[in-house]
Amino acid sequence: MATEDPINLNPEQVDRAERLHEDITVVDGLVPTDAYLVEDDYRDHLHRGGISAGNFTVASRSDYRGATEAIQDVHELVEEHGESFVVVDSTETIAEADEEGKVGVILGFQDSMPAVPISREDMDPGFEYLRSFQQMGVRIIQLTYNNLNYIGAGACERRDPGLSYYGQAFVDEMNALGIVVDLSHCGDRTTMEAIERSNDPVIISHANPRAVAPLQGRNKTDEHIEALADNGGVIGVTVFPPLVKVDPDSYEVLQATVHDVIDHIDHIVDLVGVDHVAFGTDMNDHALDTGTTPEHSALRHFRPDHPEVYGRGPEETYDPYPRGVDRHEKLGNLTGALVERGYSDEDIEKIMGGNLLRVFETVWGE
């Protein structure tokens, strides 16, 4: 376990943290890239970080065809590297991957638009695309990205009207199909209405409490988190720098450490209990090492006009990630920091994967 900053554990605690991180099923609520499948030098990073499964973003702001091709590419990559990865279709698959030392790839979308079959010729969208994606193995769909779509509003919209009538029916259909509803980038009203609409537990896969880091939209209010807990859902605390630590007046992104990440976890636990918090890194080791944000990065497209959502900082490079958890390989430090903060083994197991597994089993029915 890396110990670069600044986790103070005695030898007995170090042994406990290392053993625990190795033994538990670790689930990352948001892996935003396929670089861990594509790039030879990064194919072992998740495994070295102890990750058993992750919600991989295979599509976002794309159409049906683009998303379908991306899913096919991921299936082919996983098959090519079957000694290291497996596509997840159930919680049993995650357990098997963990047992075999593989990483389970959960197919997820960061926007529902690929699943909305609408064109100028057909202004009455149905659910055939959504059903098709479920059959292709998609198990998590975020309702919106940062903009308004046919479902609801994203975090960077001027106004948030909440779920549309179609959005309400879309959530109902996701429940029927056993697809997890993700609300990470949704606007405030859309977030609350989706929580209230869903009969199944929902997730916020990668966001933090607004009470700790006061950014609008992407970080969630205590009211959101309380409603989420009442729904049985889970919020995944993220290490994405703007959402961890900012100046409350200027929105300047500040250098954080793993302890700042734990502060977000503590807030959620104090508010609603340990059963409703997980983690979702939203971290791309490959992009961080190259030193530039991808062309589709939210920092390039949304930060200039929305510092209240994405903080103030560079657009073509990432803000420094929290010291101690700035690469997937160092994820054991999150477990170590939880040990240092006084969490029990049972609680750490829930935070590091068990709570998400509970939601997945409830929604997927397996």
Secondary-structure map with pairings?
Blueprint: H1 11-23, E1 27-31, H2 35-38, H3 45-48, E2 53-59, H4 64-80, E3 85-87, H5 91-100, E4 103-109, H6 128-136, E5 138-142, H7 165-177, E6 180-182, H8 188-197, E7 203-204, H9 222-231, E8 234-237, H10 258-272, E9 277-279, H11 285-290, H12 298-301, H13 307-310, H14 332-341, H15 345-364
Parallel strand pairs: 1-2, 2-4, 3-4, 4-5, 5-6, 7-8, 8-9
Helix pairs in contact: 1-14, 8-9, 10-14
Structure description:
This protein is an alpha/beta fold and 366 residues long. It has a single domain (11-289, 321-364), classed as Alpha-Beta Barrel (TIM Barrel). The chain is 41% helix and 11% strand. Strands 1, 2, 3, 4, 5 and 6 form a 6-stranded parallel sheet that branches. It has a 3-stranded parallel sheet with strand order 7-8-9. Strand 8, helix 10 (258-272) and strand 9 (277-279) form a beta-alpha-beta unit. Helix 8 (188-197) runs parallel beside helix 9 (222-231). The longest helix is centred in the C-terminal third of the chain and has 20 residues, at 345-364. The radius of gyration is 19 Å and the shape is globular. 54% of the residues are buried.
